[in-house]
Amino acid sequence: MKAALLDYGRGNLRSVERALAAAGAQVTCTEKASDLSSVECLVVPGQGSFGDAIQGLKERGLWEPLQGWIRQGKPYLGICLGFQILWEGSEEAPGVEGLKVIPGMVRKFSAPKLKVPLIGWCEVKPTARAAELFAGGDRYFYHVHSYRPERAPADWLACETEYGGWFPSGVWKGKVAAFQFHPEKSQDSGIDLLRKVLAKIA
User: Fold this and answer.
1) Distance from the first to the final alpha carbon of the chain
2) pLDDT block averages, 10 residues each, the chain of length 202
3) Whose CA is closest to 159, among 183, 134, 137, 187?
4) How far, in Å, CA of 80 to CA of 48, rounded?
């Protein structure tokens, strides 16, 4: 699969690029919407804040092409902020709209005495519909975040992570897949997951 890694100035692209290549993708990095016509899958990584990520996409003229890509049902893979922006919005950035692909909001961890941000390896629990994505591999993945979606519809939910309660940490429906954790930082289990996901959304 020919994958375009969106460079909007808000993420560590090199590690994601290496992980995608290890998973079998032909990867290019781009910050131009005009480059998207020759690719098959759009990959949106990200580090930082919800509002800042969307600002970066808009500043480089990538927000509207990204919306169009999703509307057309083309393969999309989101990581971290690329996962969160699928929701309607985030309390981290009041008034800033996400892609609104999935209903609901992204909110900060709020359980008593919970250390925030969540940093480290956590076991994820796949749903029955997405069990094949995690079959045969380690289910521990590297998380780094302070915010997470409240919920995801059953036909979207791929996996959950427990941290002060269960939260959606992965979604997959049709040609759209995204994860709150970092497959590119999750060693062999992350590469294996990326390989299976790319095959599913192709």
Assistant:
1) 7
2) 91 90 96 92 92 94 96 97 98 97 97 95 97 91 97 98 97 98 96 97 95
3) 134
4) 9
pTM: 0.96
Full domain range(s) for residue 141? 2-201
Looking at the annotation, which residues are catalytic?
Answer: 80, 182, 184
The CA-atom distances, in angstroms, between 84 and each of 69, 172, 188 are 17, 13, 24
Rounded Cα–Cα distance for residues 33 and 24 (Å) = 24
Number of domains in the chain: 1
CATH number for position 173: 3.40.50.880
